[in-house]
Specification:
Chain lengths: 579, 298
């Protein structure tokens, strides 16, 4: 694998995210595999934000701790990141800055590139904010990136601001690029030839994957309340209202899930979601959906808690909460997302499972997965595959009800625990349900034999669902002396760790979590030595696996500072364990 | 199968569900149930085209006693569910039945925003000014001085005035009824159902177990009078003034109605295909539209 990793550090309001995303897009279109990471603070202006673009000739699924080119638009970037610049890598900063110690940069093994960022931005351009464009153009010259791709993205991004804006930004970029060419010398971190030819792959993040999956699966209703990092799911579905989707921002998360359940009761495939604290507000309704057997897809995009926690940082600390959310006992399916492409198929599948088993399917994501961009060909999210798999289980359409006799009972007992589900509105089936314990007709009863049978009926649905749960993926050599055990959004990082560990480590990665897959314990039993790798303090997956399988994983690599673990960080810690 | 042309009679709304009615003999909820049944018959709505949501409390058991589509949800949570349902089944009649503690206390935030949002459904508040089912604790509409197990020296909190709050919060149809006058309540419910937006009826509902001195059938009968005699329901300011009347004379009837556009009528998914409910449309999204979404990410 040959790659260049560009990292831009700056304040909120300096265009770090927008210019970084454009730069990522340019590389993807030029034929590179791209992964882009953003780390930002919970504020509109100021602070210290990071945007990293990793471009490679091989598929790349994670960020890197190490930078080939570091662009310092603010005061914090060099002190924070200099130690992680690759040998011979460049540190680009404004030549006018007095606080930057070029000698210290050189002493750290990097190249100090003091450049006229502000000067070009204000003389060729019209605003010092264009410094980000100058810096990225210099970076392009250093890495040997084709300037035409940069030009194309600039044209596109500024088109809505008019021709003058396009011309000014192009002139600034060209001036930066020319300046860069004169300072390339023998810069060692050059891009390899692009492997994919010029094309137009998607650059897609996890929340977009979720929404595309939901839309392809026929989601017709969403209720939601804004909260980082879940919000963009609600926003993107709202943008897609012209596809026949009812999208409603509600007064709070309690209303959001109630709204979605009401829509589902009405027969629509429905979705809601939130993050940590907002999800906590929804919990009583998970129990309601369990009692009244209402299909629903719930997206939980975890962020670092507890309470308000780190609002814009990532964590995997809601696992045990999600698995046990809700009072009383009822069936619920829980699955976790690996990456944006997985998000597409897994979310679409969640709608099928929800209707097949008439229950909540909780989809666990995390902030890192939700907003990190991955390049993928459009064919990677295939419409036909999802549409062909649409399965509404025992949902009765109005056409089917035309031929049904009277006497419909919503909670009729059945062998698999699943009752035919009518959609209200048809003369042959009144749909009646009470959240008290009820009989087959849906009416309240406290009678003990009925109670026992109803509990068994609801819980029996898990037996069928369990058969559909996927065992963990085992990635890497089966004979590896050490197996990492992970789940959800660390997938990309941990795969790269396996790829870089010369056969010493493999990965057992869980996605379907509840009901626990029938074959879920086998890879653990077959492994030589286990280490749990998780973004939380208590090793929640390890605790869950012990409860499910009796296998205790005593070695743990855990991280809970809100920053996604990098492959390098994990590799270092494995050194300590591999003895 | 019922044909659309057969007249709808009261028999259609008599419950066939096996549920035993657990309301106290003489409960004010019986009058409300009767008025709902009569209103639905008056409007000739067949039971399968009606969906009733409720929260939790004595009155929220009503779906068990009414032969139509029904879902008793959670305490305080009937209103958002009703709105979600209505927007995907916009040609069905949607009712939400809540108590005062349920709909105005636990569900207070949902109530405020339902009024603002103006989705087309009818909200019936069974207002008995107490928590009946949990044994008489103070509710949001209990008067100062109300003595109960949680207010042993008498409540010191101001009693919420549901009509006044509804007028301030933007409800487009605001009425008050009395469960002891079923005929008038029937007509109010029918008018609320026909109103194309959120409609609330604050229903004075004596709790025969916990309201022993004030707020009995007799107490209300001596005080209620019909607003229709001398009130213009288009006049929001006059409606507010009338809403503050309480004590010796208590107005019932329609306080206010206005024709602000409902959320339903402005919902793009409904506008696209007004003749077919969102929930009953084909699932797969159009292939070209879907491919365009992906192309936008390239």
């Amino acid at each position: 694998m040959s790659e260049v990793t560009y990292t831009i550090g700056g304040e909120a309001g300096q265009g770090v995210e927008s210019s970084g995303a454009g730069f990522a897009r340019a590389h993807a279109r030029a034929g590179y595999h791209v992964f882009a990471l953003q780390e930002y603070e919970s504020r509109i202006r100021g602070g210290h934000n990071i945007y990293q673009v990793r471009a490679s000739d091989q598929p790349v699924r994670a960020h890197s701790r190490h930078h080939s080119v570091l662009i310092a638009l603010d005061d914090d970037t060099i002190p924070n990141c200099l130690k992680d610049v690759r040998p011979g890598g460049a540190v680009i900063y404004d030549a006018e800055r007095k606080d930057v110690d070029a000698a210290a940069i050189e002493a750290a093994g990097a190249r100090a590139v003091g450049a006229p960022l502000k000067e070009i931005a204000t003389t060729v351009g019209s605003d010092k904010i264009m410094a980000n464009t100058v810096a990225l153009s210099i970076a392009s010259a250093l890495s040997g990136f084709d300037f035409a791709a940069v030009e194309e993205v600039i044209r596109e991004n500024f088109a809505r601001k008019g021709e003058a804006a396009v011309d000014t930004n192009l002139a600034v970029a060209r001036a930066g690029y020319e300046w860069g060419l004169q300072h390339v010398d023998d810069f060692p971190h050059r891009l390899p030839p692009a492997p994919n030819g010029n094309g137009r792959p998607m650059l897609v993040h996890g929340n977009q994957g979720v929404v595309l999956g939901a839309i392809a699966a026929g989601c017709k209703a969403v209720g939601g309340y804004p909260m980082t990092p879940w919000s963009s799911v609600l926003e993107y579905l709202t943008e897609s209202r012209n596809l026949g989707i009812v999208a409603q921002q509600t007064e709070d998360e309690i209303a959001a899930i109630s709204f979605a359940l009401g829509a589902s009761w009405g027969g629509a495939r429905a979705l809601t979601g939130s993050s940590g604290g907002g999800f906590a507000l929804m919990v009583e309704h998970l129990s309601l959906a369990g009692m009244n057997e209402v299909p629903l897809v719930v997206i939980e995009v975890q962020r670092a808690g507890p309470a308000t926690g780190l609002a814009t940082r990532s964590e995997q600390s809601d696992l045990l909460f999600a698995l046990h959310a809700g009072h009383g006992e009822f069936p619920m399916i829980v699955t976790a997302l690996k990456d944006p492409v997985d998000a597409y198929y897994r979310t679409a599948r969640a709608f099928n499972l929800a209707e097949q088993y008439q229950c909540v399917v909780m989809v666990l994501s995390d902030l890192h997965t939700s907003n990190s961009l991955l390049s993928a060909p459009t064919a990677a999210m295939d419409y036909d595959t999802v549409v062909a798999q649409i399965d509404r289980g025992k949902t009765l359409t109005h056409e089917q009800l035309d031929d049904m006799p009277n006497g419909y009972e919503r909670y009729a007992f059945s062998e698999d625990g699943i009752s035919p589900r009518a959609i209200p509105g048809h003369a042959n089936a009144l749909v009646h349900g009470m959240s008290d314990e009820h009989d087959e007709s849906g009416a309240i009863t406290e009678e003990s034999i009925n109670r026992t049978k109803m509990v068994q009926k609801r819980m029996r649905k898990l037996d069928g669902a369990r058969e559909q749960m996927e065992p963990p993926e085992v990635y890497g050599p089966a004979t590896a002396p050490l197996s990492m055990v992970g789940w959800g959004g660390t997938y990309g990082t941990l795969r790269e760790v396996v790829d870089r560990s010369d056969g010493r480590v493999n990965l057992i990665h869980y996605t379907d979590l509840q009901p626990f897959p029938a074959e879920g314990a086998r890879p653990l039993q077959e492994a030589k030595r286990l280490v749990a790798v998780e973004q939380n303090f208590t090793g929640q997956l390890a605790r869950y696996l012990r409860a499910q399988t009796g296998i205790e994983i005593s070695q743990k690599i855990i991280k809970y500072d809100g920053r996604q673990m990098s492959p390098e960080w994990v590799l270092e810690r494995l050194e300590g364990i591999a003895g | 199968m019922t044909t659309a042309t057969a007249p709808v009679t009261l028999k259609a709304y008599k419950p066939l569900f096996a549920a035993e009615n657990t309301w106290c003999v003489g409960c004010g909820d019986y009058g409300i149930l009767a008025a709902i049944q009569q209103a639905l018959v008056q409007l000739q709505l067949p039971p399968h085209r009606v969906m009733v949501f409720s929260g939790i409390g004595c009155g929220s058991k009503l779906p068990d006693y009414l032969q139509c589509n029904g879902w008793q949800t959670l305490h305080g949570r009937a209103l958002p569910a009703a709105q979600g349902f209505r927007l995907v089944q916009h040609d069905m009649t949607v009712l939400a039945v809540t108590g005062d503690g349920d709909g105005l206390g636990e569900g207070g935030n949902h109530w405020l925003h339902a009024m603002r949002r103006n989705v087309n459904f009818t909200h019936l508040v069974e207002n008995n000014q107490t928590y009946g089912l949990t044994k008489g604790q103070a509710s949001p509409t209990s008067d100062p001085g109300y003595i109960s197990s949680t207010t042993p020296e008498g409540s010191v909190e101001y009693a919420m005035n549901p009509v006044a709050v509804a007028l301030a919060a933007g409800a487009t149809f605001v009425a008050r009824g009395f469960s002891g006058n079923v005929k008038q309540l029937r007509d109010l419910i029918a008018a609320a159902i026909e109103h194309p937006g959120y409609a609330i009826i604050d229903i004075l509902q004596p709790c025969i177990t916990w309201n022993r001195v004030e707020y009995t059938f007799k107490w209300f009968r001596e005080r209620v009078y019909d607003l229709a005699e001398d009130h213009d329901p288009q006049d929001q300011v006059a409606a507010f003034a009338r809403s503050l009347e309480w004590g010796d004379r208590i107005p019932v009837g329609v306080f206010y109605r206005t024709d602000r556009a409902s959320l339903d009528s402005q919902t793009p998914a409904i506008q696209m295909e007004p003749d077919r409910a969102v929930a009953l449309r084909d699932l797969p999204v159009d292939r070209e539209q879907f491919e365009a979404l992906k192309a936008a990410l390239t």
